[in-house]
Hints:
Helix content is 26%, strand content 35%. The chain is an alpha+beta fold.
Amino acid sequence: MRLADGQSLLQRAFLRAAGLPGVAQVLTVTNRDLLFKTLDEFAELALAPAAGAFILEPFGRNTAPAVAAAALWAQEQFGPQVDLLLLPADHLIADTGAFADAVAKARLLAANADLVTFGIRPDAPETGYGYIEADGTRVKRFVEKPDLATARAFVAGGRHLWNSGMFCFRAGTLLDEMAQHAPQLLEAVRGCLQASRRLTGSGGELRVELDPGTFEQVPNISLDYALMEPSRHVGVVACDMGWSDIGAWDALSELCPADADGNRVVGEAVLHEARQCYVQSPERVVGLVGVSDLLVVDTPDALLVAHRDRAQDVRQIVEQLKRQGHEAYKVHREVHRPWGTYTVLEQGDQFKIKRIVVKPRQSLSLQMHHHRSEHWVVVAGTARVVNGSREMLVETNESTYIPAGATHRLSNPGADDLIMIEVQSGTYIGEDDIVRFDDVYGRA
C-alpha cells in the first residue's frame, strides 16, 4: 500500500531497519508468493543488495514460528550473541531519531539476557491495541485489547503502555527461552529448516524456502502467547516516537487531512451532507449523501463499506471469503509475478482477457495448458515467442495464437517493458491449468 509520499509501508520498514547503525543484514520473512513483489519494492529503493536474506513461508503459521525460523537462521549465520530487531511491516514511525535511541536502549537490555519489547506511551484510550503493564524497564504483564473504560483507566494510571509488536533480543536468548516455554514449536521449526531448500536468487539474495510438509506441523501461535507472556525475562523500553499501527482503515485515514466536516478523501468523491467519512477511490468517483462515520474503500478487486467503529471487523469479511474459496480472497485482479504483472480486464463463461507486462530481459516459464488456447497481441515492445517447435519475434501491432496443448514461452528481449493483451478461451480458464517444463525462477 502506497502512502502520500509514494512509498509503501514495506519500503518504510526496510529503510527504518537498514538505516540503523551496525546492521549486518535485513532478513525478510514473508509468504513465498510475495517474494518477487517484495524484491521489486526493495529494488525501487536502490538498496537491493542490502535486502540480504529471505525466509519464505508456504502459508502463514502466525508470528512465533516466523520468529523462531529467523532466530535459528541468524544464529547459524552470525552466532548466538547477534541482536535481532523484529519490525512488523505495517507500522509508521514519524520520529526516526527517537526510534534509533529506543533501539539502542533495547540492545542494552537484550545484553542482559532479556527479551525486550517496545511500549508506546499512550496519548488516548485506544481499544484496538494490546497493553503492557510496566514497572520501570520490567514487564509485569501483557493485557489483551481492553474495553473503553479499562483503556481510560490505563491512560490515567500511567503504568500501561501500548504493545507495539516490536521486539529486540539476542538469538541465543530467544532460542533458550523458546526451548523452555515452547519446545515443541522450536523443534518443529528446526526440523522444517533442515528440510527446507536454500538457494541464491538472481540478485544475490539468500532464500530459505520453508518445506510445506514439515511447516504444516508447526503449531499456529503468536509470539506473545508462545513466549512473551510466559517468560519471566521480559524488559520494556517506553517510547515516544510518533508510532502508529496501520492495521485498519481508520488508522490509515488519520494520515489524510480532513475537510471542514471531518471527511478525508483519497481519489475523487462528491460529498453531500456527509460527515466524518473516509473515502479511498483512486479509479472512479464515489458519491456520499447524508451519511456519517463511514469507511468507503473502492478497489479493482472489491468495494468495502463499513462503520468507522467497526474497522477491526473487516477480518470477518476476509474469513467469510476464505471459507467460500472466493477468488477475491485468493488473488488480486493485478497479480505480481517474478517476470512482471498481469491484470484481468474481463472474464466470462469460457474466456478471460488479460493485460500482461513483462519486465526487460525477463521470461515466463516454458509451459503448456490442457484446457485453454491463447491469442497474444503485442501493444508495446517486442516479444520473443516459443510456440511449439517454432521461435519467433512478434512486434508491436502483431499477434500470435497458442493452441491448447502447445508448449510455449514468452520473453522480453528488449530494454523496455513488453505490454501485450492475452485472450484466453477454453472449457477451463483457471490459473492452475498450467504445466511448467522449465523456469528461470525455479518454479518448474
